[in-house]
Amino acid sequence: MTVPTESRVLDTTVKMLEKYPLCDKCLGRQFAWLSTNTSNEDRGHSLKLTLSMNADDELKAGEERGKTIIGLLASRGMFGPAQVIAQKNSIDFDHESQCHLCFIDGQSVFDRVESIAKRAMEESENIEFDTFLVGTISVPVLDERQDELRAEHSLLHAEALKSDFSRELGKHIHDLCGKDVNFERPHIVFLYDMVKDEVELQINPIFIYGRYLKLKRGIPQSRWDCNECSGRGCDECGGTGRRYPDSISEYVGVVGQRVTEGTRFKFHAAGREDVDVLMLGTGRPFVVEISEPKVRNPDLRVLEKRINKEAKKRIKVLDLRMTNREQSQKLKEDASTNIKEYVAIIETAEPVGEVDIQRVEREFSGATIEQRTPTRVSHRRSDLVRKKVIHRIQLKKKSAKTIEGFFKVQGGTYVKELISGDEGRTVPSVATFLGTECVCKELNVTAIYGEES
């Protein structure tokens, strides 16, 4: 015959109390996933109360077991009602006061919760946040005791100490600040170390989406250190440690970090243009990730104006808005599949005729080319052959040996090499069909958009 669950739970409770003193909260925690719509403390109190009532009934009936259970609840159960019954019936018991599962340094870790919550509020006093989460680093010896108890009594519904503690601390912090707990995307995390008795504050990053225009040539997207000294400073770079004095990421990120009072930044963009290429049209999408910001909701209009002012018309940002980490990841994922438009000035070694121009436009309409990693970037890119779709090319003669070209291509296409052929590394190329050497003298990105557009 199967033993009723209520009997198993009560029998297990008695067996645990026979060996260890357990407070209401820690006893209830051993059955945390049973009858979940209550607290561990209420659950533990109810178990002791039920045992105390049954034992008192047995005691009144003259049964010895009732006396034993009352003594057990009064001592290791630290249960007030049982202590009163024991005293009335002259039952001797030891006055235990330290729970086996939550006491360190003569104090229950749960007795610290109120003061820890106040310390957490002091730590976050100057930090802007709307949601939070609490994490706990538990005491190893208490975790070991919990594991031993769980194994010894086959406890299948127990909760870890740090989970129970984190929840209680979270409730107190919520009461003090009025902010909500968020398990998925908290703005900040309060991490409490039980051993060190320290509260550490982890501020999660913010992400700001925007688009940038590059209005001057000679600006790399990210910081470019000197090739000779790798940023240490040398005669070649005039002691600056840099090949180029500025970068788009710094124009955006440094100002963003300053406005939000962050500690560092990362710049994520939907691809990148060469240092000598302008980014025009509606701009290139980017996300700037700012770590540990004290200001979580900056005035984006003010931020935009500050970035543009400090950039002094070298770059311009627009359409700033708050976003998330997924958006920054998607930018990179989409960089090789979205569609980009370019305008190029092409110089040819020999004059070309309209027939040749029309042939280029016809042959590249929806064509797929193969591009081996260009010679100019082979030192920093894997030597691969990439297939890219060329949606459209339009050419217009400006002079006998000068052509203006419009290119609509798949993201990741090397347009300079599409024009020149890069000594056969791009097949086919504009130079192939024009039958003469071609050089891209000037290149501008004029639009970037998704394939669905």
Judged by helices, strands and strand pairing, the structural class is alpha+beta
CATH class of the largest domain: Alpha Beta
Number of helices: 14
Report the portion of residues in β strands: 25-35%
Q: Total strand count, please?
A: 16
Low-confidence stretches: none
- The share of residues in helices is 25-40%
Say what the CATH topology of the largest domain is.
Alpha-Beta Plaits
What is the count of structural domains? 4
Largest sheet: 10 strands, mixed
Computed over alpha carbons, the radius of gyration is 35 Å
Distance between the termini: 69 Å
Order of helices and strands: HHHHHEEHEHHEEEEHEEHEHEHEEEHEHE
Rounded mean pLDDT score: 93
CATH architecture of the largest domain: 2-Layer Sandwich
In one word, what is the shape?
elongated
Description:
Strands 7, 8, 9, 10, 11, 12, 13, 14, 15 and 16 form a ten-stranded mixed β-sheet that branches. Strands 4-3-5-6 form a four-stranded mixed β-sheet. Helix 9 (248-260) packs across helix 10. The model has no long low-confidence stretch (mean pLDDT 93). The protein contains 14 helices and 16 strands. The chain has 453 residues and is α+β, with helices and mostly antiparallel strands. It is elongated. It folds into four domains: 5-88, no CATH class; 104-203, 2-Layer Sandwich (VC0802-like); 206-333, Alpha-Beta Plaits, CATH 3.30.70; 339-449, Alpha-Beta Plaits (2-Layer Sandwich), CATH 3.30.70.
